Amino acid sequence: MSAAEKRAGLDGPGDGTGRDHLEATPEPRPAGTPAEPGDGAAAELARRVFTGAERWGWEFVQPPEPPAHPAAQNPPVYTEPSDHEVRSLREHAMGGRNTTGCGCGTLLAGGIAFVAVNIVVAVVVVLLIVALIQATSPNSRLRAAERRLEAERKRARRDYEARTKAWQELLAQHRDAHLSHNETLDTWYPISLTSGPSRIDVFGGTGNGWASLLATLGGPLLTAGQSVVVLDLTQQAVALELAGLATRRGVAVGHVPVPGALLGRDLREEFTSEELAETLAEALGTMRPPGADIDLHTIDVDVIQTVTDLLEGPVTLDRLAAGLRVLLRVYDPGPQAPGPLSASEVESLTRAIDLVGQGERVQNELRYVRAQTELLTRAETVHTPDAPVSAWWKPGGLTVVTTEDQVHRRKDLTDRFVFFQLLHALRKRAVTPGSGTLVVAGADHLGREALETMARQARTAGVRLVLLLEHLREAAVQVAGGSDSATVFMRMGNGEEAKAAAQFIGQEHKFLVNQLTRQVGETLTEGRGTSYTFQSGLSRTSGFNRGGSGTGSTWGSSDSTATSLSRSWQDSTTTSTAHSTTTGENLSRVYEFTVEPTQMQALPVTGLVLVETGPGGRRVVFGDCSPGINFLPKVSDRPRPSLP
After folding, report:
1. Distant-in-sequence, close-in-space partners of 460: CB < 8 Å, separation ≥ 6
2. What is the dihedral of CA 28, 392, 49, 38, to 10 degrees?
3. Which of 379, 603, 618 is nearest to 493 (CA)?
4. Lower CB count within 10 Å: N or C terminus of the chain?
5. For 222-226, which contacts have Cβ atoms below 8 Å and span 24 or more sequence positions?
6. What pLDDT, on a 0 to 100 scale, did the predictor assign at position 291?
7. Can you list the residues of the chain whose pLDDT is less than 70?
């Protein structure tokens, strides 16, 4: 679609169906014609855009994670039943494995002796003795203790699992309750300016991104009764979407296409001779490279004011160019058609030739001024209501001023002249303080000095100024962050510009993980020992007794032998296993960009980063200005509450 087709859409009832639908507005349907598909959605979008307080977009806020339950740090603990009894019996069984045989032999000997008394009773006794031996043997007692230990372990495990399940259910219920509460929370909050700046600089972005930003911002402003003027120097119809939505809401929308709308207008209605000369000279001065001779501005003012003072009728661009030709002695209206100047005006200007000066420098500058003025007069005339710039500010209305031309030099000069026309209106306080917003889109080429002058005059006049600048170059960086201003960054395609934006947003300290360590170790120790002791002893005692009394004598001898034997066995087994895990994390404190340059390059078309210094200090907010967010669920009508 051509720029002219887009421009035509500003004069009709806008489409306003979304930021990507920047198309020419369709003609009004005759009465009784069925509504086209999407009209309901467009009307609803217009209603939502024009509802609420001023906003620059929406900030997405992720609902908070559920807080930890107090019991989360105290999970159930499994307690292993004591195996003291089993260990004691196991040690006893290993240390007294021969005592059972001796006991059995004694009991069996007693039983055999008892056989002689009663065979039947002996059988019963033997069976009881065998059962008793088995029941009281260390191995039997060990197996019984092991069975009891295993049963206790199963009960402890069942109890632990039951307590763990109840603990997990408690935590799950706690989390589900908070997640249910999060479902009721808003996730999109409007972004407002807490500092109330008089100037907002928007850097980067595309035509569609700017269109979305203006639609999101302009709706609440117009609803509040503000007068909004958009000077669109981009030739991308960035105000078309806002105009379409405003038309659907019954807001007065005006379109001023320049330079065509300037032709034929009497400039005396808004300028004195001196003011017109200064305004046009300022526009011409910004076309010169920085550091040009300042005397050229004085010459421009002198020749333009001289012609304006000597014109008896209306001062139009065509008549002004004709007067400059008279001063150059090249005015020739032709014999067949009367010229734009009267005979008396030609005579007065001819007498003023010597007053202007005949020097080479003056003549060269006079030719330059005449050529630039004639360049404007050769544009195609567009008939619009004859209204001065001050009439563009309509309470609760929108005026879109577009500059489009196929000749680059004429387009450039038109941009500058209309810019300084608006600057002149601000100097004359043509707008009620606090009631207007001026948006200048695509003002990169106007220069730092012109933008700073506009910002200063807008602040003095009580008009809020919004500058949409495509690039963040050296001159723009010097403008950004001025007094009483806020800054918005949109997508930056160029790497150097993205880096400059990241530097402007600032840096902050962060703790970053620079090393992770994990060590896992396992130690297995196993030992086995066996000892055997054998002792044998033999002792023998002999004795002889002899004695007598009277007539008799006695004698005797004794002999005894004792043998001792002892044996002992000992087996020991030792097993131990140790597991160790060591996890380490090293953090380092670094000072890095809050927003990386690559993030600036990867922003969505409607993504933005707002930087302002408000009552709570400097803040950086990430947001999105797409009007379609109005249709999303959980959209709040109030800004995000301040964090404590």
Report:
1. 426
2. 20
3. 603
4. C
5. 222/50, 222/246, 222/249, 222/251, 222/396, 222/397, 222/398, 223/50, 223/51, 223/249, 224/54, 225/395, 225/396, 225/435, 226/395, 226/396, 226/435, 226/436, 226/437
6. 67
7. 1-38, 93-118, 120, 122-126, 130-136, 291-292, 334-337, 384-386, 475, 508-514, 544-555, 587-593, 642-644
The three-class DSSP label of residue 434 is coil
Number of H helices and E strands in the chain, helices first, is: 19, 13
Judged by DSSP in three states, 451 sits in helix
Tokens encoding 489: 């960054």
Q: At what angle do helices 343-351 and 317-327 cross, to 10 degrees?
A: 50
% of the chain residues with pLDDT over 70: 81
| Residue 10 to residues 15, 27, 194, 292, 523, Cα–Cα distance (Å) | 10, 12, 32, 39, 82
Q: Global pTM? A: 0.73
Side chain identity, residue 187? T
CB 39 within 8 A of CB 16: no
Cis peptide upstream of residue 259 (ω within 30 degrees of 0): yes
Q: Which of 634, 644, 512 is nearest to 62 (CA)?
A: 634
Whether the Cβ atoms of residue 245 and residue 216 lie closer than 8 Å to each other: no
Provide the 3-class DSSP secondary structure of residue 88: helix
Position 131, amino acid: A
Residue whose pair of structure tokens reads 């032998």 in the numeric block = 561
| Pure H helices in 524-624 | 597-601
Task: Using DSSP, state whether 3 is helix, strand or coil.
Answer: helix
SS (HEC) of 337-400: CCCCCCHHHHHHHHHCHHHHCCCHHHHHHHHHHHHHHHHHHCCCCCCCCCCCHHHHCCCCCEEE
Instruction: Determine the Cα–Cα distance for residues 326 and 336; give it in Å rounded to an integer.
Output: 19
pLDDT at 83: 80
3-state helix, strand, coil in the chain (%, to 5): 45, 25, 30
Residues 6 or more apart whose CB falls under 8 angstroms from that of 47 comprise 249
Amino acid present at 373: T
Query: For strand 507-549 and strand 552-593, is the pairing parallel, antiparallel, or unpaired?
Result: antiparallel
Query: How far is the C-alpha of 285 from the C-alpha of 369, rounded, in Å?
Result: 11
Alpha-carbon distance 604 to 489, whole Å? 12
In the numeric block, which tokens belong to residue 545? 């007794």
Q: How many CA atoms lie within 13 A of 28 on its CB side?
A: 8
Give CA–CA dist 127/189, Å, rounded: 91
Cβ distance 353 to 231 under 8 Å? no
User: CB of 145 within 8 A of CB of 49?
Assistant: no
Question: What is the distance, to the nearest Å, from the Cα of residue 463 to the centroid of all Cα atoms in its chain?
Answer: 31
Res 26: pLDDT: 36
* Whether the Cβ atoms of residue 83 and residue 152 lie closer than 8 Å to each other: no
404 in Cβ contact with 260 (< 8 Å): no
Show the DSSP H helices in 200-239 as ranges: 207-223
Q: Taking each helix axis from N to C terminus, what angle separates 273-285 and 408-427, rounded to the nearest 10 degrees?
A: 130
pLDDT for 263-274, tens place per residue?
Answer: 888 898 889 999
Q: How many residues does the chain have?
A: 644
For residue 489, which of 195, 196, 57, 190 has the smallest C-alpha distance? 57
